[in-house]
């Protein structure tokens, strides 16, 4: 089982981090410092290593102004596995794992499964269904290795079918070929998604009961993207007239969603910002827990500005959950005590703090 844990990270040219070397990473890494000092940029660099992209903005905006490329190097323990990425303004990407070039980001993501909790994570509740599909598919991808091929097959299929629909004047046989193709992989994707969701939901409920007992009554509902009484092929056949009329495929996994409800209302319309953040944390923590239970390793958590929106008691509860997962975490905050004061004391040996200022990072004496 991959129990990825970064022991070192070297960052070149990520925003205001021109050359940063951190060789003393531990399980819990807290980066504190004033606004604009570069804390989030450290999380971005780690994200780049696992996902080959930033979680905010384009690569162009991430590369230090005046530079043409960014490089991030990391070392995973145990086994001292080196991991490297170079991205250039031209769009070129070089990925290396164990000193050898790799072609797909998936290979990196498998080594370093990353979960981000930041201000954009609210999209999980308040954003469009695509944010929730991405969330769901992240989990299915990591737990069910056959998913990715089928997902790619579906993406190709729907592109072809929509192209045909746009072309107009198509014969029923031509369309039927792609309808059958889509139906086949669409059913498989949905089976994987549903199976994953059914494992995820009870874990989420258990975590949220700890994080926010007052939110008992939260419900997660999986929507597959077409009438659940119908097979996908039948749903596609039924929607063919409107597909032809409007030139795109109306039903299918591309419309799947997870509804988050409380007392029958959408959580996004009902919960306070702090409560929403707790739900988001619950969703992300549940995925990490499931990943580990499935023997697929541990998530690396990147938590940007943990204290924002949360009172100290809830901050403490989130930290307790993170500590319980035994995952490696990277947390940013403004004041040194924001996290140190609430992280479980028993984790002392695993806990380290870094002060970030003007793009420089320095380790701080253990608490
Ligand atoms: N491409 C770039 N090149 C150089 N500097 C940049 C670039 N993009 C952003 N910056 C600067 O780098 C810094 C990035 O800061 P970052 O967002 O990591 O700050 P932070 O410590 O997380 O701040 P906050 O507490 O306000 O969230 C900012 O000062 C920003 O102005």
From TrEMBL:
Signal in keyword set: no
Keywords from the named record: ATP-binding, Cytoplasm, DNA damage, DNA repair, DNA replication, DNA-binding, Nucleotide-binding, SOS response
Domain of life: Bacteria
GO CC list: cytoplasm
GO molecular function, one term: single-stranded DNA binding
Main location: cytoplasm
Residues bound to ATP: 33-40
Subcellular location: Cytoplasm
Domain (RecF/RecN/SMC N-terminal): residue spans on this chain: 6-339
GO BP: DNA replication; DNA synthesis involved in DNA repair; double-strand break repair; SOS response
Protein function: The RecF protein is involved in DNA metabolism; it is required for DNA replication and normal SOS inducibility. RecF binds preferentially to single-stranded, linear DNA. It also seems to bind ATP.
HAMAP family (UniProt xref): RecF (MF_00365)
The family this protein is said to belong to: Belongs to the RecF family.
Protein name: DNA replication and repair protein RecF
Natural source organism: Halioglobus japonicus
Gene this protein is translated from: recF
């Amino acid at each position: 089982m991959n129990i990825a844990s970064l022991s070192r990270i070297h960052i070149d040219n990520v925003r205001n981090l021109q050359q940063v070397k951190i060789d003393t990473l531990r399980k819990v890494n807290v980066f504190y410092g004033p606004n604009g000092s570069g804390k989030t940029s450290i999380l971005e660099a780690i994200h780049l290593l696992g996902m080959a992209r930033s979680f905010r903005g384009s690569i162009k905006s991430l590369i230090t102004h005046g530079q043409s490329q960014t490089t991030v190097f990391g070392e995973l323990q145990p086994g001292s596995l080196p991991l490297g990425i170079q991205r250039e303004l031209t769009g070129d990407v070089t990925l290396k794992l164990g000193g050898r070039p790799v072609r797909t980001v998936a290979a990196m993501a498998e080594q370093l499964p990353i979960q981000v909790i930041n201000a954009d994570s609210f999209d999980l509740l308040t954003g469009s269904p695509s944010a929730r599909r991405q969330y769901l598919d992240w989990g299915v991808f990591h737990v069910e290795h056959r998913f990715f091929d089928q997902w790619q097959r579906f993406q190709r299929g729907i592109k072809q079918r929509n192209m045909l629909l746009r072309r107009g004047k198509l014969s029923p046989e031509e369309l039927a070929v792609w309808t059958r193709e889509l139906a086949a992989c669409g059913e498989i994707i949905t089976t994987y998604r549903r199976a994953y969701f059914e494992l995820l939901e009870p874990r989420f409920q258990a975590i949220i009961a700890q994080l926010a007992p007052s939110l008992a009554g939260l419900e997660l509902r999986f929507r597959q993207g077409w009438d659940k009484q119908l097979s996908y092929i039948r749903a596609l056949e039924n929607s063919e007239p409107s597909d032809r009329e409007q030139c795109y495929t109306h039903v299918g996994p591309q419309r799947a969603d997870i509804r988050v409800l409380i007392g029958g209302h959408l959580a996004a319309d009902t919960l306070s910002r702090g409560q929403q953040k707790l739900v988001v944390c619950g969703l992300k923590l549940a995925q990490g827990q499931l990943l580990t239970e499935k023997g697929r390793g541990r998530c690396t958590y990147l938590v940007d500005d943990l204290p924002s929106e949360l009172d100290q008691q809830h901050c403490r509860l989130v930290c307790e959950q993170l500590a319980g997962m035994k995952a490696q975490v990277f947390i940013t905050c403004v004041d040194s005590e924001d996290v140190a004061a609430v992280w479980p004391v028993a984790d002392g040996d695993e806990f380290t703090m870094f002060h970030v200022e003007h793009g420089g990072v320095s380790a701080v004496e253990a608490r």
